[in-house]
Design brief:
Elements lengths: L11 E13 L2 E14 L10 E2 L5 E3 L4 E3 L3 E4 L4 E3 L13 E7 L6 E10 L6 E5 L8 E5 L7 E3 L9 E6 L8 E9 L5 E9 L8 E4 L4 E9 L7 E5 L5 E3 L2 E4 L5 E10 L18 E6 L8 E2 L3 E2 L5 E4 L19 E3 L5 E9 L14 E10 L5 E6 L5 E6 L22 E5 L12 E4 L4 E4 L2 E3 L15 E9 L6 E10 L14 E6 L5 E5 L2 E4 L5 E11 L4 E10 L7 E5 L8 E8 L8 E2 L38 H4 L5 E2 L8 E4 L8 E7 L5 E8 L4 E4 L9 E8 L4 E8 L2
Parallel strand pairs: 4-6, 5-7, 6-8, 16-22, 24-41, 31-34
Antiparallel strand pairs: 1-2, 2-3, 7-14, 8-13, 9-12, 9-14, 10-11, 10-13, 15-17, 17-20, 18-19, 18-21, 21-22, 23-25, 25-39, 26-36, 27-35, 28-31, 28-36, 29-30, 29-35, 32-33, 37-40, 38-39, 40-41, 42-43, 42-44, 45-46, 46-49, 47-48, 47-50, 50-51
Length: 721
């Protein structure tokens, strides 16, 4: 027996519990319903459902099948049919208005239509967002349109949906089947930091070293139920970690602000569930190595048996709070009528007491979005304390956002950037369009536009906290994606000041047998053997973090002669021959060079490699004369001439006759100032000849010709081929 059939209609007022059977979708269901109203049973044996006639009375129905009729009911479950029920068509000349309200305050009614067929453009169903036909129309449907999911909107304080259906006298169709449910309001959720290891200091701040393990344990306080909730830690460095208990390390010094984001399993309002409204803002300071600049030896290379001093210097590192730019995730905007979707970012850059005092403090709100029907959408910005501004109000009909995919798939299209700013001049609804998407259609031109509502409604909102883009999809069929979005504040706003400098509490040199004296952070060392000897300067800061800097000196072999270096005051690479130091290093100390051929170390345009200008009274190239040619006037001597320049194996030098029989000192220097030839010749027959030069490398050289007795000293450039 599939159902109870009655031979005739009867009416009965009763207050009782009725147990009945329904044959519904090939299943026998057992339901117990308690109500106080007028009940009728169909006299038609083909009618396999019980219907409730409301007669204008508001009734609470639990798990009941509801037929289209006049009245008001409260229901969050059951199936909503046309007046013909599951198996019969609706009747002709109908004009019914039914209001379905939620069972509890704060809930919102949802209708999900699975089957729908009426006479196209004749038999019409109109759905209103509220508890009467004076409320905004969600949609008017006929034919075999796929209505899909219909929500009472967030702006609908009653949470009710009102349905009006009219039909003509002929051509009645099968009507509809829709599931009734209610969107549960969000519960209050509070995130709690249960414990942290290592323990926080007296100010509640965790202080660690780079690489230290930190354990964070958190939980949530739920107004109703926390079963199945998700826990995501925002680690303040752009990364996240999942779970109530996590272990984390930081690889870079700085100040980090950690928060715990909790989402429950109530997806009725937001796709990722309802979230906590508070921020734990756990501050973590991560120490870094001090600046050891200045920790060095006076001499890095020592002659055998010498000593040197080494100074230890450590300047503590200032730790900065680098506010990470909040990152949003890709948010799918599925088909839905009245469905709301949100994507949120957590702002932590500002003082916890800072609020929005001027709309100019929000430069713009930008999103990268694609959607195949902009007329579906209302777009809102919601501040951390719930204040809200509508950015876009259903406009444009089938105009795309971005390069949308309008091909009945869930494949994402190509997003475009749309920004909202009080500095713009045009609403997005008035923006120009361009061809875009698949298939190509009119799409809003990306750009910056005025919000639909003024940002004034956000004044007083906390700057820190969870800011959300909320999108209400008012019509069925189309979908889209928000790929990313950002909220840009005025850069002149004062940021949260978390700067801190860990103080150094200990500085010392590690023990070493070659340290002969300690004077504060300065040590004197006397290595006892040739080779490299290293010394370690160590610091410990107030976080207990230890850092070390190593300084090494080299002791040369016993008996190795020192090198003479020449002071180079003018930095031209040639030193003053009268200002020297000796060092066992092959590398000249700062301010010294390996050759001393400069004749004016206060002018860097005067050196042996400079071009000499004749007759200006200045010997630019240090060859002893003014100009490139030697003259008797310059020296009161006859011309001195160098033959074979460039040369191969020998050089002939013609000298003034006054030098006949004199001893002529000839020194050849390479460009590093090293002597590669040094001999004294007797001037015979007006000159001298230098032989045996084949061993010199092909390169430029400087030749010095001198006679101390008469004060002659000439330097000339020569070249070996």
């Amino acid at each position: 027996m599939n159902a109870f059939f009655f031979k005739k209609a009867f009416f009965l007022f009763l207050d009782a519990t009725i147990l009945y059977f329904l044959h519904l979708k090939n299943k026998v269901l057992y339901r117990s319903v308690k109500f106080s109203t007028l009940v009728t049973n169909s006299i038609n044996p083909m009618k396999k459902v019980l219907s409730i006639l409301l007669l204008g009375i508001s009734v609470s129905v639990f798990g009941q099948d509801i037929l289209m009729q006049n009245g008001t009911i409260s229901a969050c479950s059951g199936t909503f049919y046309d007046s013909g029920g599951e198996n019969l068509n609706y009747s002709g000349n109908e004009d019914y208005t039914l209001t379905i309200c939620p069972e509890e305050v704060g809930q919102r009614v949802k209708l999900e239509f699975f089957d729908f067929e009426t006479q196209l453009n004749v038999d019409m169903i109109t759905i209103y967002d509220g508890d009467s036909t004076s409320e905004p129309i969600i949609g008017i449907f006929s034919g075999n349109t796929s209505i899909g999911l219909i929500f009472a909107s967030f702006e609908n304080s009653s949470g009710c949906l009102t349905i009006n259906f009219t039909s003509n006298g002929v051509g009645n169709a099968s009507g509809w089947i829709a599931d009734i449910s209610c969107a549960m309001p969000c519960q209050d959720i509070t995130a709690v930091l249960d414990s942290v290891s290592p323990l926080a200091n007296a100010e509640g701040i965790v202080e660690v070293c780079v690489g230290d393990n930190i354990q964070l344990n958190g939980s949530g306080v739920f107004e109703v139920d926390g079963t199945g909730a998700s826990y995501t830690w925002d680690l303040g460095d752009g990364s996240t970690a999942l779970g109530q208990s996590i272990n984390v390390t930081y690889d870079e010094p700085g100040v980090y602000l950690v928060n715990l984001d909790i989402h429950d399993t109530n997806m009725d309002n937001y796709m990722d569930g309802c979230s906590n409204g508070n921020a734990i803002n756990q501050v973590i300071r991560v120490s870094g190595a001090p600046d050891f600049t200045g920790t060095q030896a006076d001499d890095s290379t020592l002659c055998f048996g010498d000593t040197t001093t080494i100074q230890g210097v450590a300047d503590p590192l200032l730790l900065f709070y680098n506010c990470p730019p909040p990152e949003s995730e890709v948010t799918f905007l599925p088909d839905g009528s009245g469905a709301a979707y949100s994507t949120c970012i957590n702002v932590t850059c500002f003082d916890n007491e800072a609020v929005l005092t001027d709309v100019s403090q929000i430069l713009d709100i930008c999103m990268n979005i694609e959607h195949s029907f902009s007329g579906d959408l209302d777009i809102f910005i919601q501040s951390p304390n719930g204040q809200e501004v509508r950015l876009f109000d259903q406009a444009g009909g089938g105009t795309y956002f971005g390069g949308a995919n309008d091909n009945e798939t869930l494949d994402p299209g190509i997003g475009e950037d749309y920004c909202f700013s009080m500095n713009a001049t045009t609403l997005l609804a008035n923006a120009p369009t361009e061809l875009n998407g698949n298939p190509p259609s009119e799409s809003w031109v990306p750009g910056t536009y005025l919000p639909y509502e003024n940002f004034d409604a956000l004044l007083g909102s906390p700057l820190n906290g969870e800011w959300c883009i909320r999108i209400v999809d008012n019509l069925s069929i189309d979908n889209g994606y928000i790929f990313s979005w950002e909220l840009n504040f005025d850069p002149s706003l004062e940021l949260q000041d978390y700067e801190y400098t860990p103080q150094i509490i200990s500085q010392s040199w590690d023990t070493n047998s070659s340290i002969t004296e300690i004077n504060g952070n300065i040590i004197t060392v006397a290595p006892e053997s040739e080779g490299e000897h290293c010394y370690t300067f160590r610091t410990i800061d107030e976080f207990g973090c230890e850092y070390a800097e190593e300084v090494c000196v080299t002791m040369t072999a016993e008996g190795q002669p020192p090198t003479t270096f020449y002071e180079d005051l003018d930095g031209d690479g040639y030193g003053d021959p009268n200002s020297t130091i000796e060092d066992c290093s092959d590398t000249p100390p700062f301010g010294y060079v390996v050759n001393g051929l400069d004749c004016n170390d206060t002018n860097n345009s005067v050196n042996p490699d400079a071009d000499d200008s004749e007759g200006n009274g200045v010997d630019e190239n240090c060859d002893g004369v003014d100009g490139d040619l030697l003259s008797i006037d310059d020296f009161s001597l006859e011309n001195i001439e160098i033959l074979q320049n460039p040369f191969n194996e020998s050089i002939s030098l013609n000298l003034p006759e006054q030098l006949l029989g004199s001893k002529i000192n000839i020194i050849i220097y390479d460009l590093n100032g090293r002597k590669v030839y040094n001999k004294t010749h007797e001037c015979l027959e007006g000159g001298v000849k230098l032989e045996g030069l084949s061993n010199l490398l092909k390169a430029p050289y400087f030749m010095e010709v001198s006679n101390d007795a008469i004060g002659l000293k000439v330097i000339r450039k020569i070249v070996k081929n």
